[in-house]
Amino acid sequence: MRLINQGMILGEGGVKMSKSLGNVINPDDIVRDFGADTMRIYEMFMGPLEVSKPWSTRGITGAKRFLERIWRITELPLTDAQPTELLLRVLHKTIKKVSHDTARLEFNTAIAQMMIFLNEVSGLPEMPRSLWTPFVLLLSPYAPHLAEELWVRLGNAPSIARQPWPAWDEAYTAEEMVEIVFQINGKIRARESLPAGTPEEELKAKALGHERIRALLADTQIRKIIVVPDKLVNIVAAI
Fold first, then answer.
1. 221-239 average pLDDT score
2. Mind listing the pLDDT tens digit for each residue in 188-200?
3. Alpha helices of 17-84 — where are they, by DSSP H?
4. What's the CATH number where 187 sits?
5. Which domain holds residue 205?
């Protein structure tokens, strides 16, 4: 259990909405002109939930375009073909991030990840069903009316709200390459991209064998080496 105090939606000028200032945005008007899903997506995408944000008519137009892109993708023919490994990685990373961010009420970054997924699949000539079905499930808490329609178009029985949440496969979410920082006494001296999961002893060897690190440690006594897997190697030296 935790308390979340959400921020206020301000007027377009960044000041509090007030009838006397004439800057009040009527939600009924926005729903009438743009649809309820667009309003939901826009307000969740404006920024962190606990921060006050100014309303932007241009911003809600962007949210509408996002949902229109999703709708256009439904016009692609569906296929049962297996997606490429690259697309599977994008899908499972999206499921993982949207799941984690939604649980933490970080809705804006969850929507941003869904946009990344759309960018990756928008150029496909046909849509693998195994990609689109879990994405529609991820979309459903954010744009429930659109997601319900997409769910039925996929040939499923209503309602999407009663379906289980998709799961991700960690094998597809792990980064293939990570940047390792090489430090001397806590100061960054070099960087190198290495495969994720590289053993500690190998990381030590890579750090000590790096040309710049060797030059800086010439004629210097090494006291100890601290390794944080997939992140850094810190060499403590008597300089």
1. 90
2. 999 998 888 888 9
3. 27-34, 36-45, 57-73
4. 3.10.20.590
5. 177-238
